Amino acid sequence: SARPAWRFSIAEVGAVAGTLPWLFLVLTPRGGDGGLQLVPFADLIDLASADPRTIVEQLVGNMLLFFLAGVFVPLRFRVGLLAVFLGGAVGAALVETAQFAFGTGRVASIDDVLLNAIGALLGALVSRRWWRDSRVVADPAPEAAVLRSAGRDWRVTSFEVSRGTDRAARS
Q1: Residue pLDDT, tens place only, 46-59
Q2: Are 113 and 92 contacting, i.e. CB atoms less than 8 angstroms apart?
Q3: Cα(45)–Cα(168) distance, rounded to whole angstroms?
């Protein structure tokens, strides 16, 4: 059916197109020495004393990175909330590793990984009501499947295998 194919295509494009601009932004070099922060929650504790604008930019910006991937990936693939969260965490760890390795002048932080993964999870929660509809099989399994081999049809049901010729199958 064309409907699931369109849904899958839109989900794939949405996940990629919704993430690429953010990736470009976070991998763009900026002035500074950068650094590495592997102590969990240290950046978040420091952020608590920052001005409100910085708090919003850091929290919302980090959660947006994989938000749309979180929205669209479960619409395309059979994955649950844990898989979306873990996928967001792995993707975020790769981004933070790239920031550090490429010397972008940004701080690669374990807290950013956590916020990115939470953003993916929130995206999945937003789209959860549509998961079931997107997972409908395009062509439900018929009562008997037909396997073709050497000019013969093999009708397979849960109870039996019967053999016939092509001509007999068409009558």
Answers
A1: 999 999 999 999 99
A2: yes
A3: 75
